[in-house]
Structures are given as structure tokens and as C-alpha cells.
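ok posting inputs for the iron/sulfur cluster job
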Amino acid sequence: MLFGRKKKNPIKIADKGIVAWKYATCGYCSTGCSIEVGLNAEGTPVSSRGVADADVNRGKLCLKGIFEHELFTSAGRGMQPLLRERWHEPWQPATWDASLDKLHDEIRRIQTEHGPDAFAIISTGQMLTEEFYTLGKLTRGLIGTNNYDGNTTLCMSSAVSGYKRSFGSDGPPGCYEDFEHTDCLIAWGSNLPEQHPIIYWRMKEAQEQRNFTLIVVDPRVTMLAQNAHMHLAITPGTDVVLMNAMMHVIFKEGLEDKRYIAANTNGVEALMAEVAKYDPVTAAKICGIDEDTIRVVARTFARPRAAGPLQGARSSPSGGSERSEQGGSHSPAAMQIWTMGINQSTHGSDGVVGINNLALITGNVGKPGGTSLSITGQCNAMGTREWSSCSGLPNYRVLENPQHREEVAAFWNVDPAFFPKKRGMLQTDIYQAMEAGQIKGMWLIATNPLSSLPNTARIRKAMEKLEFCCVQDCYQDSESAQYAHVYLPAGTWAEKDGVMTNTERRVNRITPITPPPGEAQPDLWIFNRVAERFNRGAKVNFPEKAGDIFLEMGRLSVGRLADISGMNHELIEQHRGIQWPYSAEQAAFDQSRGEAPPKGGKRLYTVDGSFSYADGKAKLIPLPFIDNNEVPDEKFPIWLNTGRLIEHWHGRTKTGKIGNNNKFSPIPFIEISPDLAAELGIQRGEYVRMVSRRGDAVAMATPTQRVPKNMVFLPFHFHDCANRLTLGLLDPHSRQPAYKQSAIRIERIEDQTAAAKLSMEMRKF
Ligand SMILES: Nc1nc2c(c(=O)[nH]1)N[C@H]1C(S)=C(S)[C@@H](COP(=O)(O)OP(=O)(O)OC[C@H]3O[C@@H](n4cnc5c(=O)[nH]c(N)nc54)[C@H](O)[C@@H]3O)O[C@H]1N2
Ligand SMILES: Nc1nc2c(c(=O)[nH]1)N[C@H]1C(S)=C(S)[C@@H](COP(=O)(O)OP(=O)(O)OC[C@H]3O[C@@H](n4cnc5c(=O)[nH]c(N)nc54)[C@H](O)[C@@H]3O)O[C@H]1N2
Ligand code: SF4
Ligand SMILES: [Mo]
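and the output
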């Protein structure tokens, strides 16, 4: 007998008439989920699903991945190249030839008139790796500007800089499987359930099995904090103080791993001398975490099993010894992950070094469950770090090293003297140079600084000053295109062919599922056409096919940290991604064993003395703390914390047009404490005005206990909103902006109708 809904109104899953599924990797976040897109008989993409036998996501997707196929036909896509003489004039449709000639001619004109570095190229973490490599070859090998950088300066540059300072090279040493081996996880400034939902799911599954201790450091009660054994609501921007105090306790109580420190590190004496100043009593006054909590967290991290499960924790159902992958027993392991709460700070690079210090002094690098794992942001922020040449030359080679310059010049057939001898400006510095009139032209590729850089008013002024700007974006309505003289319509995601690298160094494949709309072209095609214009005489080789470019990159990677010489497009797709390093030698060995899946590199630095510094040792670096942030005061008494929501992606050029994403938060809002709202006379659902020293913005008030009384949280996804307010002081090492620490005041708005109208304008789409 049928009951209820089954009988009355059974749910029917619409038959979309899918005849084929095609393979890709999700193009939003760096989790790197394997996706299949379903095509109907007409070849139209109509559905997306997770790939069951992919190790990363095991069949799952989050709500961005599930609707990703809707991008192909979403509103605002660029269909043809556009040209205009001045940025405030109307656009004129143009041919590809005319647009690309214009780009070439303006680059050369500006370089001739003002010097080679007066033209800047800004790239992204959201293209495919073969595209990054090709753009790098074009920029470093033919165009020759040293002011070439990417939006990763807004995102991962603190992690990159911190890894380089500690370990001698960039490259996250851990993997998702570490959750299955760890005894303690500290998450610093990372809202995993919303920003990396499938990594969160992997972590949660592992935690349900073994109930390791989870400690979350975040000024907000995020969903991750709600799930933690301990939530440390830190004073914004002071994580380094907490880290120093934890190290103080670890050394004082003799909890450090002396053998590991002796075999693998330099600098322990200087570190001990510095952290001696950060006793928990003194530190507590700065970072807002009480002294007892500091001690418990330090002990739990250094001795995760001796400390036993924290309050509320169930005892671990499985013992310890079987956790070693090799089958033998291994010591308790503790790991740390972090994201923008650390990187986006004036102490971003130091925060990363502090995390690495904690990992090194307790011997928690390169072992199962013991790692210091930066959770990457954009889908291919890793690919750009490895291959774009933004910060140097391919595969973590640096411009400062003459041997690296020689190697790459010989490989590309260019003159090594053409390469600069040191890295040029980073993106944030490039904007300041634009303001100062040193940079006259710009090519923006897959990034939207007018929405994403701090202090929009200043960015506008800088963009208005440009003699020439080219925007290459899959959407014509990106805010930055307002200031462009040339607009190049690009394909996106699975309209293109190539690979991306995820947070755990897994290289995964995207196959071209559908062509770009109208006359739009894949970014790779655009770079190759630009290259033809600079490569008279075809001196440098630019292969057309992504698969061939990948093999070329493989040859350039032999013996390097990110060795991919054992991979090719087919093998990658077949195994749903392979982690680097994976050398040709390893591939030959794997092949000789028959069908076994490739043994890519799960972890880095797994044996003593294998760090990238010349002596194989990592550096322990003292971190004195100077508070240079903008902090709340009488005039601007509230912290402005900015970040993200699960349903939206950055400036919403994509998710703002997908109904099933946009409906969850179509207008800007703030999380505000009910007590603060009451004090200001603000009701739930009313619009408020936020004022900083830079500007003002309007958002709807949603009272919630998630934020302390002296802080509001504002998602930065909305047009002309969060970054009108942010200051974005730069980290001295990474030049990354402190997006999460600005001071504002909040004002009640009398005329709610006018405010609602303004807020609708901010939704833009
Ligand atoms: N849905 C969705 N997912 C995304 C993205 C997206 O736009 N949408 N973007 C991707 C990208 S590029 C990135 S970089 C990642 C970002 O991923 P996350 O960094 O996890 O996300 P955010 O919301 O920027 O910030 C994380 C947390 O940092 C906290 N925080 C603020 N100040 C401090 C501080 O001083 N100390 C500490 N410890 N924490 C602090 C905030 O309260 C916030 O909860 O997400 C990626 N995933
Ligand atoms: N206040 C505040 N500001 C922030 C942050 C914060 O936490 N708070 N976070 C910062 C961080 S971590 C990041 S990563 C940045 C992100 O900053 P942006 O890079 O500016 O953000 P997106 O909106 O993702 O911009 C990507 C652009 O590329 C286009 N695009 C997408 N795919 C393709 C493609 O395949 N080809 C081409 N040619 N175009 C494509 C999109 O339409 C979009 O216009 O924002 C930063 N800004
Ligand atoms: S978790 Fe990230 S990679 Fe996976 S489906 Fe969601 S947005 Fe895509
Ligand atoms: Mo990011």
C-alpha cells in the first residue's frame, strides 16, 4: 500500500534525455572535484554530477558544482570582441584580427614610449595550466614586461611566501587523506564547510570515524567553529601572537620533538629566544584568548594522544598503530590547515611561517596526519603558482637564479639576457604604480580588480588613468570592462581543454564539453594568436593543442619538485587526477606492475633532510609582532570582517546569474550582533549604512550571534560594496592585502525605500 506523498503526488525526477556524460574538474574552488556533464541528443549540456570513482569527491558535489553546466548559457557572456578609442565611449563590435592587432600595437607603443615595464599583465588562478604556461612563455619570452602578476596576490601569496621562507620552496606538503590519520586538527581562519564543502565532507567523515580533536581559530562562529571541540574567537590580525604563545608553552614544557628539530631544521635557538617573550599571560592580552586555553591548545597539539580527547569527544574507536600507511606504528600526528583568515593580513606571511614553525618543532611535516596544509582558493591557483612564470619561471624556478634563466631560455629558444634578473611588482604594487603614473597600459585576464581589490575608489582612479586597457573575460559585464579599450570574449571552464592542480597537488583534467558561445574563444587560442603577433619568424614554438603543451611542460619538469613527466592527459583522466610529483621513472615502474593506479606524490618532505634549502633543512624563523592594523577606535568602533558565502563566487559574474545559487543571497547583507543592532535601533531586515575612512556602502542587517558585538561580517560578493570600505594594508613579504581588518561605523538609515533601491543596484545582475 502506498502512503502519503508516494500515493498522492509522487516526486518525479525529470528525464533530461541524457545520452552522454563528459569528464571535467569543477572550475570553482580548489577542492578539485571530478564532475561529469550530461549532454542530451542535441549535444546540449543539461546536467552535472559527481564522479563516483574520483578519490577527491567520491561522487559528491556542492551546490556550485551541481549547477555548473548552466554557465554555458548564462546571461552576460561575451559573444564577440569589442573596441573603443576611449573607455567612456560606447563599444563597437570588432573582428578578432582588429582587436588582437590593437592589443599588440598598444603593448609595443607603450613599451617604446615609457619602457618595457610600463605595460602590466595581470592574470588569475582561474585558467587552465597549459594556458598559464603559454601566457608565461609569451610574457617572459616575447613581450618582456616584468610587471606580470596574478590575482593570487590577493589570495595565496602569503602562503607561497611563508612556504618559501620555511621550507625553501612553495608547494603544500600534505593531502586530504591526512584527515584520516591525524589526532588533532587546528584550522586557522578557514571556513571549510562553506568555502571548500567537499574537503569539509572528507574531514568530517574522517572525524566521525576517529573523533580527533578539532580546534578552530576564527573571530566568527563559522559552521566549522560550531563543529569544533574548541573555538578560539581570536582578536583579528593577532594569530601570530597566539602561535608564539603556543610555542612558548611547547618549549617550556619540553613538548617539542628534539630529534626532528636537530635532523631537519636550522634556527631553533633564535626561535626559542623570541617566543620566550610570549608567555600566555602577556599574549592573552593581545590576542584575546585566555592563558589556560592557550596552554591546553599547545599541549593538545604537541601531544595529541597523551592529552586525550577533549571535553565532549568520544574515544577513538580505532587504536593508533594501524594508522601508519606502511603498516607499522607511528607517533601521534597533528595537522594544521588555514585559508584567508591567515593569508589576508598584514601578518599573512608571518602567520604561515608561524604555522610551519609549530609543525616543524613538533615533527609534523610530511607524515600521515602530520602536515601544514594551506587550503588553496581558486580552482587553479596551484597551477598558476607552478607554471605561469608570474613570480619567476616555470616550475618554481626563479629569475634571480642564472642557471634557471639559462635552462628556460634554452628550452624556449629565447635569449637569456631578455629575462629580468629579479621579480617585478606584485599586483597590489602595480596598482599603486598606476596611480603614480609609472604603468600606462594593462591586460587583465580572468580577474576583476574593480570588485576584488581593496579601496575601490582608489582602484577606479588608477584605472581611469590608463592609456590603454584590455579585458579578457568570459563575461562582458565584469566591472573592470568599464575601463577597457579592448574586450576579448573568452571561453570558460569546460569550453576549454587542459588541466588544473588542486589543494593537494592533484593534477586533474578538463575536457572541452561544449564550444564557447558566439565568437568567444578559449584563452589558449587567444594567447597563441597574440604570440603570433610578437613571434615574427616563429622563433619560439607555441603548440596549438593543450595535450602537446602538457607534454612540453612535462619535459621542463624533470627532476624538479613539481615533476609531472610521468603524466599525460589520458592517464590523468583515467585515474581522476594524479598528485605531483609523478616522474617518468615512477610511471614506467607503475606500468611494469600492470593495472595499479599511479603512485603520485601524496606528501612532500617525507624523509629527513629533504627540504628545498641547499642543506635540506627547513628554517625556524622568529616572528616579532608589531600591530600595524587599522583597529576600531571612537570614530570607527566596529571591525569590518569580509569573506564569502557557500552559494556565491567572488564578484558573482558566474553565480549571480545562476538562479539556484543567487536565490540564497541576492542582495548584500551583514551579520551583526543582536546587541549591537538593538543599541543602534536597527531591526532585522533593515538597511544600514557602513562608513569607513575610504567610503560608504549599504547592506541589509541580519542579526546573529555568529559575530561578536564589535564586529560585522560582510560577504564581498556584491557590486560596489565591501571593497568601498576596506583599507587593505599590505603584508611586507607577500604584498597581500589585509581584507579582514578594517574599522567602520554603522548608521541607521531613515529612508528605507531609498536604501532598498540602492541595494538593488548593488545586486547588479
Ligand atoms: N563558495 C565559495 N567558495 C570559495 C570561494 C568563493 O568565492 N565562494 N572562493 C575561493 C577562494 S579564491 C578562496 S581564497 C577561499 C577562501 O576561503 P576561506 O578563507 O575559508 O573564506 P573567507 O570567508 O574568506 O575567510 C575565512 C574566515 O577567516 C576568518 N577571519 C577573519 N579575520 C581573521 C583573523 O584575524 N584570524 C583568523 N584566524 N581568522 C580570521 C573569517 O571570519 C572567515 O570565517 O575560498 C574558496 N572557495
Ligand atoms: N573584501 C574582500 N575582497 C577580496 C577577498 C576577500 O576575502 N574580501 N578575497 C580576495 C581573493 S582570496 C580573491 S581570489 C580575489 C578574487 O578576485 P577576482 O579574480 O577579481 O574574482 P572573480 O570574480 O573570480 O574574477 C574572475 C574573473 O574572471 C572571469 N573568468 C572566469 N573564468 C574565466 C576563464 O576561464 N577565462 C577568462 N578569460 N575569464 C574567466 C570571471 O567572469 C571574472 O570576471 O578577491 C579578493 N578580494
Ligand atoms: S567543493 Fe569546490 S570543487 Fe567541489 S563542487 Fe564545490 S565548488 Fe566545485
Ligand atoms: Mo582566493
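notes: Residues 124, 126-127, 151, 154-155, 340, 344, 377-378, 445-449, 451-452, 472-475, 478, 490, 492, 523, 642-643, 650-651, 653, 716, 722-723, 726, 739 surround MGD (ligand 2) (CB under 6 Å). The CA atoms of residues 690 and 696 lie 5 Å apart.
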